[in-house]
Queue: 4 jobs
Job 1
Amino acid sequence: MDLARREHAAWRAGDARLAAKEDLALARRILAGYQPRDRAQAEERERMLAFIDEHPTDAHRRTLLVGHLTASALLVDRARGAALLTHHRKLDRWLQLGGHCDGDANLVGVALRECVEESGIADLAIDPTPLDLDIHVIPARKDEPEHLHLDTRFVVFAPPGARAVASDESHELRWVHPHELGELASDASVRRLFDLAFA
């Protein structure tokens, strides 16, 4: 992937194209426009589009207990040659930043908003072209049943020398170089994001 080209095309906070939208037609357009790199990604896209069609008013709301759309991003600092990961407090794993749409169908805007909130870095920019799709199971907890997260993943860029501050959702934040990823308790989908971004 050409990170420099993606960063050049990135949208910055305040861009009108990042404004929240309730209409799920926008999420559907973003997913329909995604060009899958392989059969597995094509299948994920079709499952996500079908999910929106099955839940046309609430696929992007966490009140839909069977599952819901989410958006996340690998937050990259090209000058460091690293990406920022969170040691997620609830899931106890190292993950990319991201979270629930909470009624916002603008998946690009959701991913950027979540990165700002979880990293404490205000001056971020997002490539609006999805990098990856991932549907995964979130285990049951005392206040919610097992459910699906249908996650659209992007690349977000930090300015050089950015200082991250962990939110209450994280045990810790860490800038991770690709060769260090194997030392952390992450999962295959995080490793896939690193492979896509840093290949």
Job 2
Amino acid sequence: MSFPASPSDPATPATDSLAGLRASIPGYRLGDPTLSRSPITLQELDLLKTTVLLTDEDVGYLRRAGAILAPQTEAILDVWYGFVGQHPHLLHYFSNKSDGAPDLEYLGRVRARFGQWIKDTTNARYDQAWLDYQHEFGLRHTRAGKNRTDNVASVDHIHFRYLIAFIVPITATIEPFLARSDAGADEVKKMLAAWTKSVVLQTVLWSYPYVKPGDF
């Protein structure tokens, strides 16, 4: 299965300010004032960061990782999309509900946002705007929001089990890309650890819409 390339990638913003985000990506709305406020507070976010051991030092290593990963974004996406394409049970979530065929336009749009997500992960400010968008991101995996952004007729829900299970390929495959730099083995290890903590933290936040009220 081959996947369409993402839209051309504009220059990476000099900062991770909300104003610098790529408006050309459909549905990318971090900082949009119309987004619902996250039901998780900044204080609760701090406790989650403490629980996954995400420190200021890790944030520094995430910034370093971002400088290494950004130029390799398309190659990373090729690996991730190749993984999805090799597994029909994952490709199913990007397929037309009517006939089960992959929606290539939908895959292309999601790919563009996935590429931006790599940059956002390594540049996260962990502020209210970032927290609100994590909630929106979670909703987009569920019946409450999937397909809405791209106005597609795909399956309407990604099962929770794959939200958790996908942590492994998203983290395990990133190390070779970090190693393609002048970073030493110890620095690569620390960047990978910071990336993993960030992915776990985000996945926890995305899980909120799946959890019975009062149980999160």
Job 3
Amino acid sequence: MNDDRLVPLRRNADDPIHRDAEKHDHDEGMSPMDPPDAYSPPTLAESVPYEEMHPFLRELRDEHEGFVRELDTFDELLTKMLEVGIDRPTYEAMHSFFGVVDSQVIPHNRREERVLFPLLAARLLEHGEHSRGSTKTTAVDVLERDHLQVIQHSAVILNFFGIASHIPDPTSRGVVLETAIQQGKALVEMLRLHIFREDHLVFSLAHRYLSTEELDRMRSQL
């Protein structure tokens, strides 16, 4: 299998979620050449436990749990496709996953963008929770970028599968299918990291910087 066809997930060097890592670059055991794992940033110790979060934030996290189960199933499906190829049941299962993305994941993301993100972004800027470049970006900017990439990646993957279904040559069809599958794997990892960022980092910032009354109002809007 040619891994060169896999589009890597690039983390923004100016990612404000990981900005604290820069503060610790010269701490014992850490260096710019050995950055912290994406799932173990230095700020994780400040994560607010699920039980202590406002109900609105817990509800968003609860929705994530369903998405994670769908991701696990889709990841297993992609692995099966790599091993044994694609048939009608796997093709239908693949379309079922993207149906969930369209009917559940994207509406969930839009609710976050409409209800939670605007005020949270303002508070993060007020409290200095932003990048240190000339253009101040916050964790909200990172999440909104992720939301857009989910839509873009999904469209690309579906297009690859559609193109493959119309290629008569088995070798060429196999190349396109493998590319589609690897793009699917990239989408799975993107969504897993995105959900981790929200659950353990960004929602903790929302809990810290938004009042109970403000979160109550957000919850009532949904």
Job 4
Amino acid sequence: MEERQIDITAKNNNSVRLGLIPGHFATNHSHVNYFVDITTIKTQYRAARETARELAKLYAHNKNIDTILCFEGTEMIGAFLARDLCLHGSGMKGGEDIAVITPETNMNNQMIFRDNLQKHIYNKDILLLMSTVSTGKSITRCVECLKYYSGRLAGVAAVFSAINEFNGIVIDSVFHQDDLPEYKTASAAECPLCASGVKVDAIVNSFGYSKI
């Protein structure tokens, strides 16, 4: 599959590259016709740093971020994002620090925070950081978790998002649907590739893909 991969660069930063593999892929919530590969962005120093730099521009005037909540392996990006926001004096209230944390998932697949981390959620303004957003259903789960721990949603940021908003929540991203107009998502029951008899190439989750 890798031989089919193409790369696109961010409009304002040639150092930020997104890998795209066309095909038929099944996620937890939908079927998509592209695997959006951000492995390099999540795992390599320069790519993560430059991606965070682009996201920081979107929150340059937001001084209400206490915590960056990282999902789908975005911790390195989150650390650089916190650094950039702090360096420029934005995203901070009264010079306070920004926490960068990741939720834990229990045996029932529920997101939880241990007692020692709850201080970074309770009555705090939280920026959700995600790798990709296709349908937005994962955002609902995240928001419900924040409400349970009395956290306030300050924004949703992603490397790539196929949608601009979900249930009234604006999604800020480095790469948008306009950067990949051919990207399509559909439920398994309504997938046109399945209807055409095209076999699924791979199962996709936040860690990557597994060929079938």
